[in-house]
Structures are given as structure tokens and as C-alpha cells.
Amino acid sequence: MVAAMSELPHPALSVVAPCYNEQEVLPEFLRRIGAVLDKAAGVAEVVLVDDGSRDRTWDVMTAAAAADPRIVAVRLMRNHGHQLALTAGLSVCRGERILIIDADLQDPPELLPDMMALMDQGADVVYGQRRQRDGESLFKRATAAGFYRLINRLTDVDIPADAGDFRLVTRRVLDLLLAMPERHRFIRGMVAWIGGRQVPLIYDRHARAAGESKYPLSKMIRFAADAITAFSVVPLMASMTIGWVMAAVGFGFFIYSMIGWLMHANLPGWTSIMAALGLLSGMQFLMLGIIGAYLGRLYDQSKGRPLFMIRDIVGGPK
Ligand code: UDP
Ligand code: MG
Fold it and tell me: Please, what is the average pLDDT of the chain?
């Protein structure tokens, strides 16, 4: 009898890598991650997710899975994008600790032992923080820096700058992450939101080993929009601020036209038009702001995130 998957002992470590058209780097990635896992203690698995690649990525994966029982290949129906491909891999993996890594070897797998050591000391999350970014254009670096500054101003979670999704997380953190049902997923922000002990590991980010970036500017903009809207209702609330300003300006117009009317300084008809315009436009913006406030709350509610996450409970009846 074959034991059901869930009855098998859980691996100590899962490595999860989303792959989109990565046929050039995959063999080298598997060689390097394999070498790291050979040295590590405990049972490990490598979950590779083919995010609807149009090259031979899937063939490379299945051949690797046939040759090495540690490798699990997952293929999505179509291209879902980096964050969802990663989420698919995270929901399939079964390890007690989970290493999230890109397949393009920009993040060196050889850092795993250092990350494990930091986790042994009690970290819930060990995230890679880049000291330098080889092979990335000035434009990419500048937009990334601006993006992290903006998102940290707009939101109340501390999302570390210069950190991608390269990180080691505990099963507990992963289960909390998977319990967040939101559709637009900004995973590094969601992990930061979970909290616990999050420890950086500084490293040098290398250039891609082969192939090219799958993040053109259009995808970067969508990614940034997802990140900001997933963590901040500030843009929605902006209409409230504008509403107050407009209401004050409109009321000022109203008073001004009334004074003119009392002093008989206005052209006939001007007073009524200006008074109505001032009051109504102020009111309209304010009403939009109120709708924004409710919509923001509705949006927060619809994300369905846990209200709180208990870390420990000590004491009580045994
Ligand atoms: N990726 C993916 N689906 C996509 C785009 C990218 O699974 O639609 C994977 C890709 O194969 C890589 C990781 O996500 O392993 C990061 O992508 P990439 O290296 O192209 O992004 P960059 O490092 O240039 O930001
Ligand atoms: Mg990359």
C-alpha cells in the first residue's frame, strides 16, 4: 500500500522556486541547490513551479523529478505571475521550514546554512537583504528605492527595503501566510505584516545566471500598484482630505459672494451661481470622501486577514 502524501513524515526543509521560462538556468540551479541540500542535515524537498512557461522548463523539471526523489514539479494551467506561482508552490510544500528562492540564481542558495543558523536562534523569518545589486540597471535600482520609500510612508507595516522574496520562514509563518485569502498578493509585505522575529541576512545579489528578467516595466508597475493597494487605503482616503479642502474653499466662495450681494457689488445672477457652485462642489467632494472611507473599510474587511495572531500562551490549567 502506498501511504497518502499527508501520512508521510514532513521534510525538515522545503525549497520553493517559481520558474517562468527558466530552461537555461534550471539545471545549474538544481545542481547548486542539490549540493547545498546534500550537506544539510535532515530530509528536504525542492518544489519547482512551472508558471506556464513557453520554453522547455517543464521538460527539464520532470526529468529532474524523475532522477531525484527530492524534487517535486508543479505545473500551473497558465502563466499566473510570480507571486501566485510562488503561492502555489507554498501551498504544495510540506516542510517544517521553507526557503523561498528565485530560480535564476540571483539569490545564492549557499546562504541556506547561515539562514538555518539564524532560525535555530529563534527567528521566525530570515530575509535576505541585498548589499549590492549586480547586473541591475540604475533605473531598476532607483525605481526600487523609490517604491520602498513610498510604500513605507503609505502603510503601517515595516517592509524592509532591498529585500525580495528570498527568505526562510517557519511552518507557523507559512500557515499564517496561506491563511490570508487575498487575491492580490504582495508576499514580502504579507510576511512582514505577520510579524514575529524577522531577522535580515545581508548578502550580495548577483546578476541572473542566464536568461532575462521576466519583470518588464509594465509588470513592475502592476506589482507596485498591488503592493500599495494591498497595504494602504491612503489613496482612497485622499478624497476625504480633498473633500475637506474643497468644502472649506467652497464655503469661502459662498461667503464671498454673499458679501458682494449684500454690498450690491455683484452682477445679477452671479451670486446664486457662485454660491451654489461653492457649496455643492464642496459637498460633493466630502461625500466622495465619505464613500471612500466606507469603501476602505469594506476593502479591509474583504481581505479576510486574521484579526490577530497569537505567538505564545503561557500558564492556565494543565
Ligand atoms: N517568475 C514567474 N512567473 C512570472 C515571472 C517570473 O514564476 O510571470 C519567476 C522567475 O522565473 C524567477 C522569479 O519569478 O524565478 C523572479 O523573476 P525575475 O528573475 O524575472 O525577476 P527580477 O529578478 O528580474 O525582478
Ligand atoms: Mg531575477
Answer: 89
